[in-house]
Design brief:
Blueprint: E1 6-16, E2 22-33, E3 36-41, E4 53-63, E5 65-71, H1 86-99, H2 104-120, E6 123-129, H3 134-147, E7 150-154, E8 156-157, H4 170-187, E9 192-194, E10 197-198, H5 206-219, E11 223-227, H6 231-240, H7 247-253, E12 263-267, H8 273-282, E13 285-288, H9 290-295, H10 303-308, E14 312-315, H11 327-344, H12 354-366, E15 383-386, H13 399-409, E16 415-420, E17 423-424
Parallel strand pairs: 1-4, 5-6, 6-7, 7-9, 8-10, 11-12, 12-13, 13-14
Antiparallel strand pairs: 1-2, 2-3, 4-15, 15-16, 16-17
Helix pairs in contact: 2-3, 3-4, 4-5, 11-12, 11-13
This protein binds guanine and fe (iii) ion (FE).
Guanine (GUN) binds next to helix 1.
Length: 428
């Protein structure tokens, strides 16, 4: 009989079952059995005695965070060019930098920095854009595989409206994608998966979308792209695809908008009722990227509406639209921007709560990966240990307050341990 592998973490356990409240077990135990959560206990049941226990003292233990939208090659210029809107920023900063990833030596230098910092962060899962370069994308996948994080990584497709130095011919783009997928299959990764990644409608022809759908069918791949981020972008999509009912309808017409295709759409700042309804019908995941939406002056997405409508929604750092991989910042920014939206433009949607943004960072985004992002029994065991003693305070604080405060104050220095699918990650 196969030996069962059980271990137990002890500390202040906090997780979400729903958007409205934290589930908190002070001084409790979370039990991992064969890579899955067996349960959370205030008192350890007799039957679990004798298994190894790692005691993290007064630290908090939470599910790992999911970053549903991040651009790996953009890590090098985060915090730069923040005085531009999306389309100008892409042309001035993004495309010139991404073109450098045809050089594997540069790619390695850049991706090593990014993956190192992701490894040390509180993030356990991520959906990542690379560039259109196949060798550099594989290199990024190798690095993430070694990190132990569980990731979806996409070779980007672009066959129009991009500079010559960063554009593929249509057939070349799908042929390179096919080659890339075959190479990924040959690698037999255990934590790293490919995801189809046309950059967005303005840079991808209808013909390329059709070819990507064929590839999607052949290999049953998930899909990620951008949607309704900026008014100029949306008007451009209408010009390029006058036959579409709305922006998301373009992806949907090609069978690349949920349904049988697990799909993440980043931003959705300006999604109208029709687009929201279609995302709901098709089970599309929204990656809410609040810092990016501020930095490139996109706007503020109606997140409470998405939550009330029951859409799938998680958080994204959207580096380098966002400046940091630190998902605590994404949680705080989500609360802060929702308050400005409520105060300035629409008091019908109340500001987000700490409970809601924590839910999005864990269970909401985690769901894209399966049963991920909670400590309910049967969930994959992703856990992060947070030791907040650096953030000294004179008064007693309860566990909920300590977690809320960390959303504003914490970074990788608070991460004292990290587990993905029951395996401990080296965060040194
Ligand atoms: N839309 C198309 N490409 C990008 C990108 O790299 N970043 C963001 N924020 N939006 C995009
Ligand atoms: Fe993006």
């Amino acid at each position: 009989m196969k030996k069962r592998s059980v271990f137990i973490l002890k500390g202040n356990i906090v997780y979400s079952k729903n958007q409205k409240e934290f589930s908190i077990c002070e001084n409790g135990y979370v039990v991992c059995k064969d890579g899955l959560v067996e349960g959370v206990y205030k008192t350890l049941p007799f039957k679990l005695g004798g298994n190894p226990i790692r005691d993290y003292g007064d630290a908090l233990i939470v599910p790992g965070f999911a970053d549903l939208h991040v651009h790996a090659p953009q890590y090098s210029y985060r915090g730069l060019g923040m005085d531009m809107e999306l389309l100008e920023w892409l042309e001035t900063n993004t495309f010139p930098e991404e073109s450098k990833f045809c050089d594997l030596e540069y790619a390695e230098k850049s991706y090593r920095i990014f993956v190192e910092n992701m490894r040390k962060s509180a993030t356990t899962r991520a959906c990542v854009f690379a560039t259109l370069h196949r060798p550099a994308t594989l290199l990024l996948m190798d690095l993430f595989e070694k990190s132990g994080l569980s990731t979806f990584i996409g070779k980007v497709n672009m066959d129009r409206n991009a500079p010559d130095y960063l554009r593929e011919e249509t057939n070349e783009s799908s042929e390179e994608t096919l080659k890339w997928i075959e190479e990924v299959i040959g690698k037999n990764y255990s934590n790293t998966y490919p995801i189809l990644t046309p950059r967005f409608v303005p840079t991808c022809t209808d013909e390329l979308m059709k070819q990507l759908k064929q590839i999607q069918r052949k290999y049953t791949l998930p899909f990620q792209s951008h949607l309704s981020e900026n008014p100029g972008e949306i008007a451009w999509v209408k010009e390029l695809c006058p036959w579409s009912e709305f922006y998301g309808d373009v992806y949907d017409k090609f069978g690349l908008f949920g349904g049988d295709t697990p799909t993440i759409m980043a931003h959705c700042v300006y999604s109208d009722e029709r687009e929201i309804r279609r995302m709901k019908e098709n089970g599309v995941f929204i990656a809410h990227c609040p810092e990016s939406n501020m930095n490139v002056s996109s706007g503020i997405a109606p997140v409470r509406k998405f939550l009330e409508e029951g859409l799938h929604i998680g958080l994204g750092s959207d580096i380098a639209g966002g400046s940091t991989e630190n998902m605590f910042r994404a949680m705080a920014h989500a609360v802060q921007s929702s308050k400005l939206r409520w105060r300035i433009s629409d008091d019908s949607l109340k500001p987000l709560t700490a409970e809601e943004v924590f839910f999005m960072a864990t269970k909401g985004g985690g769901e894209f990966f399966g049963k991920v992002g909670s400590f309910e029994p049967g969930y994959e065991f992703d856990a992060v240990v947070l030791d907040d003693k650096r953030l000294a305070h004179p008064q007693p604080l309860d566990v909920r307050s300590r977690l809320e405060r960390m959303m504003y104050l914490a970074d990788e220095r608070e991460v004292a341990g990290k587990y993905v699918r029951g395996k401990e990650i080296d965060i040194s």
